[in-house]
Amino acid sequence: MTRPLVEVRDLKMHFPIHAGLLRRQIGAVRAVDGVSFDIREGETLGLVGESGCGKSTCGRAVLRLYDITDGEIVIDGKAIGHEDQNSLRHVRPTMQMVFQDPQASLNPRMTVARIISEPLDEHTKMSGAEKRARVLELMDKVGLNPTFASRYPHEFSGGQRQRIGIARALALNPKFIVCDEPIAALDVSIQAQVVNLLEELQDELGLTYLFISHDLSMVRHIADRVAVMYLGKIAELAPRDDLYAQPLHPYTQALLSAVPEPDPAQSDNQGERIVLRGDVPSPANPPDGCNFCTRCPAVMDVCRRIDPDFREVTPGRYVACHLYDPEHGGTAPEQTGGANPGTAQARTGTYPSTQQGGNP
Amino acid sequence: MPSGDRTVLEVRGLRTAFQTRSGSVYAVNDVSFDVKRGELLGVVGESGSGKSVTMMSLIGLLPMPPARIEAGEVLLDGEDLLKASPARLRNVRGGEVGFVFQDPMTSLNPVFPVGFQIVEPLRRHMGLSKKAARDRAVELLELVGIPGARARLDDYPHQFSGGMRQRVMIAIALACDPKLLIADEPTTALDVTIQAQILELVHKLRDELGMAIVWITHDLGVIAQIADRVLVMYGGQVVEQAPVRPLFRDPRHPYTRALLKTIPSVTGERAAKLQVIEGQPPILGAFPTACPFRDRCPLAFERCHAQNPAREVVAEGHDVACFHPSAQGAEAVA
């Protein structure tokens, strides 16, 4: 098995809340509260969830755009969880980001050529002519007409602007790209163009993506494995086909059944729709026990007391839910044949720790 | 229902243009449709296809100038709203026609409690006393499923979540028993689980109150869930109209067909590669003399560049604006 390119263990990102005359800290917004996952080289991990669940914060924290509260991050064999911003500069070329809103993430006063070559100015010693050649090559690669290099972002449509953002992310030959809702701001007919471009680039350059989105149908298309986030934690992580065919966590089940099916014939056999009651609790004040217990249709007593571990219930499938935890009267899902979840890994609970342990 | 298929709204040949420094921009071209009592008409289209401008033209919500309605009739129960006086339109808006906008945060006034905002149309249009209006407001909030309605009347919009705010907007739109509810992308800003709650609510309200609903969205999934009939708009025109099932089973316009193929689904087959519609949506400009989809259409031929197709009936309740024979029911080529 290929070694994971990205390893995240127990990542926490808490934002302090200050109040009162002395601005004392009175609490924290637990935007990301103990998240673990791996992304293998050349793979796309989809990260889905509703707004406010912490998926974007998670993506930004993995790239160390924040100083994280706790946890470990290893990218391409280098632990970057607690590096200071100066030493991070040397790692940044391997990890890049494509942002949601191409209007807001492109400087309106810079030409396309300057936007795309900015990472080159910062991280390479290329000559002007070399940079120019690289910019044109990148524009061509993402399907932008190179003759538009001296135009400004406002002269482009939404889909083209997103291509500029992608070209900028590719400039330094990164291995890992966090795509934070890259298609959310685009029209339906343009979304498919951008998703196909991301897939072609992945095949050609062997890129690894963390694809953050709230669009479950698009994630089904692009991701190899999918992590479902709820209120700062991963509820379920599984290979794509398993997750969509047989969601285990009650939240994943509800989320999938809430997606309107664009085919009336299909929606007839979609079965009974699970409509969740209520809203997502505040991440500043999450409920005791399982954080989904306030809305869960299958809630049990134990859920209100004990926070379920994020366990591997069948090979490659992780769920944080007491329904699948034998210790709390749950049952393992059918596919396992009964015996598998009793492996040492599953017993100890949680995700296996990184090979590195601490810093190498 | 006694008047089950009575037409509530009839729009004929609506044409709206905006005056700009570089000439007129035709945002809505000869749009015609009707909605019956108890019917939910879905309007789909990409941004810039003219869906919102059409609906705003109906009840005089566009600033004029720069907007100008050049032609058409908008008949609400037989009364032409385009000829109505501003005072009459003020009575129609919020009274006979309710409106729900996309973003519940920007369409509620942040400095007034929600109770005040629901009571306002009740006092203005129905002439209720303060007390009666407050009671009615509580009923409305209960109707849209806000728990503890009476206690929440004096809360401000920021104290509600997005889904709850959209419920408040729906309550305001429903306040005066409208004949027609126009909902402009009402769930686009919401999460899917909250969207499912709102869709369920609208279904229930339509069945209980029997009003006509026009639901604008770009999400074909939502349309498939709730609409009875669908209007597909492209480049300021209606390119296809059909009852919901025939539209998804047998789409005739090349744009509708392509649009249905570009959308991945959470069930069903997973395509290895997404189909794309090449090119960009059209930039609206002078009055169109050719098919707006011609540059992106795989089936376009000379006639499409020379003439703008009119809508022709191809089956019962199903019409399409396309010259290609496959749209008329001949075997599809592509």
Automatic annotation (TrEMBL), chain A:
<dbReference type="InterPro" id="IPR017871">
    <property type="entry name" value="ABC_transporter-like_CS"/>
</dbReference>
<dbReference type="GO" id="GO:0005886">
    <property type="term" value="C:plasma membrane"/>
</dbReference>
<dbReference type="Pfam" id="PF08352">
    <property type="entry name" value="oligo_HPY"/>
</dbReference>
<dbReference type="InterPro" id="IPR027417">
    <property type="entry name" value="P-loop_NTPase"/>
</dbReference>
<feature type="region of interest" description="Disordered">
    <location>
        <begin position="328"/>
        <end position="360"/>
    </location>
</feature>
<protein>
    <submittedName>
        <fullName>OppF_2 protein</fullName>
    </submittedName>
</protein>
<dbReference type="GO" id="GO:0015833">
    <property type="term" value="P:peptide transport"/>
</dbReference>
<dbReference type="GO" id="GO:0016887">
    <property type="term" value="F:ATP hydrolysis activity"/>
</dbReference>
<dbReference type="InterPro" id="IPR003439">
    <property type="entry name" value="ABC_transporter-like_ATP-bd"/>
</dbReference>
<feature type="domain" description="ABC transporter">
    <location>
        <begin position="6"/>
        <end position="256"/>
    </location>
</feature>
<keyword id="KW-0067">ATP-binding</keyword>
<dbReference type="GO" id="GO:0005524">
    <property type="term" value="F:ATP binding"/>
</dbReference>
<dbReference type="InterPro" id="IPR013563">
    <property type="entry name" value="Oligopep_ABC_C"/>
</dbReference>
<keyword id="KW-0547">Nucleotide-binding</keyword>
<dbReference type="GO" id="GO:0055085">
    <property type="term" value="P:transmembrane transport"/>
</dbReference>
<dbReference type="InterPro" id="IPR050319">
    <property type="entry name" value="ABC_transp_ATP-bind"/>
</dbReference>
<keyword id="KW-0813">Transport</keyword>
<comment type="similarity">
    <text>Belongs to the ABC transporter superfamily.</text>
</comment>
<dbReference type="Pfam" id="PF00005">
    <property type="entry name" value="ABC_tran"/>
</dbReference>
<dbReference type="InterPro" id="IPR003593">
    <property type="entry name" value="AAA+_ATPase"/>
</dbReference>
<feature type="compositionally biased region" description="Polar residues">
    <location>
        <begin position="333"/>
        <end position="360"/>
    </location>
</feature>
Automatic annotation (TrEMBL), chain B:
<keyword id="KW-1003">Cell membrane</keyword>
<feature type="domain" description="ABC transporter">
    <location>
        <begin position="9"/>
        <end position="260"/>
    </location>
</feature>
<keyword id="KW-0813">Transport</keyword>
<dbReference type="InterPro" id="IPR017871">
    <property type="entry name" value="ABC_transporter-like_CS"/>
</dbReference>
<dbReference type="GO" id="GO:0005886">
    <property type="term" value="C:plasma membrane"/>
</dbReference>
<dbReference type="InterPro" id="IPR003439">
    <property type="entry name" value="ABC_transporter-like_ATP-bd"/>
</dbReference>
<protein>
    <submittedName>
        <fullName>OppD_2 protein</fullName>
    </submittedName>
</protein>
<keyword id="KW-0472">Membrane</keyword>
<dbReference type="GO" id="GO:0015833">
    <property type="term" value="P:peptide transport"/>
</dbReference>
<dbReference type="Pfam" id="PF00005">
    <property type="entry name" value="ABC_tran"/>
</dbReference>
<dbReference type="GO" id="GO:0005524">
    <property type="term" value="F:ATP binding"/>
</dbReference>
<dbReference type="GO" id="GO:0055085">
    <property type="term" value="P:transmembrane transport"/>
</dbReference>
<dbReference type="Pfam" id="PF08352">
    <property type="entry name" value="oligo_HPY"/>
</dbReference>
<dbReference type="InterPro" id="IPR013563">
    <property type="entry name" value="Oligopep_ABC_C"/>
</dbReference>
<dbReference type="InterPro" id="IPR027417">
    <property type="entry name" value="P-loop_NTPase"/>
</dbReference>
<dbReference type="InterPro" id="IPR050388">
    <property type="entry name" value="ABC_Ni/Peptide_Import"/>
</dbReference>
<dbReference type="GO" id="GO:0016887">
    <property type="term" value="F:ATP hydrolysis activity"/>
</dbReference>
<comment type="similarity">
    <text>Belongs to the ABC transporter superfamily.</text>
</comment>
<dbReference type="InterPro" id="IPR003593">
    <property type="entry name" value="AAA+_ATPase"/>
</dbReference>
<keyword id="KW-0547">Nucleotide-binding</keyword>
<keyword id="KW-0067">ATP-binding</keyword>
